[in-house]
Amino acid sequence: MAGNETGRVKVAHNLYRRADSPNLYVVWHQGGRKRWKSTGITSLKEAKRLRDEFLGRLRASGLTRDERVTYEQLRQVYINHCTVRDRAASLETFLDTRSKHLDDFFAGMRAIEIPLSGAIARYIARRKREGGSNASINREMQVLGQMFRLAADDEHRLVSRGLVPQIRKLEEPAPRKGIVNDKQFVEIMGNLPEWARPAIMAISITGWRVNAVLSRRRNDVDEETGFLVLNREASKNRTEYKWPLVGDLGDLVRGQLAQIQRDELKLRRRFHGCFITMASASHTKHCAIIAGEPPGRLAIRVS
Fold first, then answer.
1. Percent of the chain with pLDDT over 70
2. Which end of the chain has the smaller Cβ count within 10 Å, N or C?
3. How much is the pTM?
């Protein structure tokens, strides 16, 4: 436990008693600031012994607790927290995206250097030069701040609470506004080419992102239970979603599947019965259930 000396009574050299606790506290100077640590006991004699042992270890190591902790330890605390609290989506997002930028910059740093050496400001400037959006940088700084807060809580006590950085958020664009009414949507659909209509209709029905809709394949259609599945890997927040194949979406997906079967049959006939394997690109017309590309861009491989 760490803090300052306010409200405490000195009972011996480097030992204080707090008004709201019977325990004695060791107090020492580090980096021009006073630090304190609970001995967990009330006996002055035992507290002096613990004080001498603790301060002796500090002098022997030449480093205080805050100076010994590294970024890698903070990172592991965050990973452990997400694992124990079953926050799989947060952990996957961190490992897939956030950690790539944070690890590249802060790896090897001591925890005390990050808030006290201007490293955070340098990181933000670097990410801006790399083209990172304010929203992405804010999410990364949010994770970094959480690493420190978790490391400073009573469960871990790796660093003192005074070391937790106060990071100002960058200004983010206002949330998107505006809706399309039914009449406007009908007009939009009427002006779209035929190949683009299924994708726009599916986006309108499900509310899924463009890439999420365009990347759906035949094996994402669960015909047995009657759902179109958005798997965790394709979902931005790493959460699986299922949309029932009823109404307009059901008709749309079944129509797309039937069209794919007809097109594949035509291709087999065209190539004299050769087995045709569709290309792996997710947005080509015949790889995806709901395509967002015009016809004529089909990439095929004859085997």
1. 79
2. C
3. 0.50
What is the longest distance spanned by two Cα atoms in the chain? 96
d(CA 249, CA 214): 14
Instruction: Write out 182-214 in H/E/C secondary structure.
Output: HHHHHHHHHHCCHHHHHHHHHHHHHCCCHHHHH
Alpha carbon distance 9, 26 (integer Å): 12
Q: Residues near 268 by Cβ (< 8 Å), separated by ≥ 6?
A: 274, 275, 276
**Structure-block tokens of residue 211:** 């890439």
Do residues 148 and 161 make contact, with C-beta atoms less than 8 angstroms apart?
Answer: no
Question: What are the φ/ψ torsions at residue 55 (nearest 5 degrees)?
Answer: -65, -30
Which letter does DSSP use for residue 112 in this model?
T
Helix, strand or coil, per DSSP, at residue 297: coil
CA distances from 165 to 51, 60, 102 (A): 28, 28, 15
- In one-letter notation, the amino acid at residue 118 is G
Return the closest-CA partner of residue 165 out of 99, 210, 120: 120
133-151 pLDDT tens trace? 999 999 999 999 999 999 9
Residue 87: partners with Cβ closer than 8 Å, 6 or more residues away? 81
